[in-house]
Amino acid sequence: MPNEDVKIGTVDGDLARWFGDAGRLSVQRAVHELREGRPVRLTSGADALIVAAADMLGGERIAEWTMTSSGPVGLILPAPRLLHLGIIMPGPAHIGLSDLTAFDIDDVLMAVNPNVPLLAHEAATRLEASALDLVKRAYLLPAAVVLPATEDYGHMISVDASAVDTFHDRSARDISIIQRTRVPLSEAEDAEFVVFRGGEGLRDQIAIVIGNPDPKKPVLTRLHSACLTGDLFGSLKCDCGDQLRMAVNEITAQGGGVLLYLDQEGRGIGLLNKMRAYRLQEMGHDTVDADAVLGYGPDERRYGIAGAMLALLGFTKITLMTNNPEKISALEDFGVNVVGHQRLIGNVNPHNQKYLNTKAARAGHLLGEIARLRK
Asked: What tens digit of pLDDT does each residue of 199-227 get?
């Protein structure tokens, strides 16, 4: 007989352990819908919006929405993209689409030097800002199409804005170790891969524990964000592959430690948008400006999950291998005691010199000697 205190079909009682956090699950479902090109319903109290990812619609379909919708359709864009369009705002803005053609909308979304009419705009509401954040969670271009939800669409996935706002923290709280196994590496034969389940978007995260680090002492640690082009293919546009292999070698040489391999491609914007940014770099933009043209800040990564991974491994005091001071403060915000840091200086070549200079000059990375090189 089932426990009468458990409500079948909900996440009450024991079912919560099976289905997980209801809010986080609703965000994951909404992300899937957006990536499939379908709209979702975003709520906050009595307020509700229909939200779609502009990236999956394009100007023609957005223009159709504008002509056929019973309510006003708006486009929510973040401050970095707005600045590129000549609009100075401290945060995201709502742009009215009623006077824009499909061609104009495509220019607003993606054009590098847009020739669009003066855009009517106003500060985005808090709910509209959450819509933009939800689209970014799907690793799509940070642009959300919204219209008022005048009725309850039963077939449409619904998500509360509070669940979107706290999604990363919820994911960090629910992460767990699912598998540990030995995998000898060319630079570290005594290596153990630890797979964590429960990260954002159900993307598994990996830690590589090398040797037998003592959790009572500061553990040499590297947080390495995945870089398909650099780590796997040896791209010369960045120093990521060099840093990955140098970190494994250094941890081995010092007798042990841990490397967290985090699924945060392109400083948190995803592989597709990283390629878009690379294309903009070919047109003369540096790495920070290229991300801004797309609508992103200089670094979209978050490190709550990294802090949770270290806690599950039993490592509370670390020496962090990084050139990025923001990683230190971000980890400390999640209760990790960073007692020291070591830099990792990769190889400099004609293809990554500007990239490294920009990280030093505009992102505060500790690469002063590289920034002075080859001037």
From this structure: 765 578 999 999 999 999 999 999 999 99
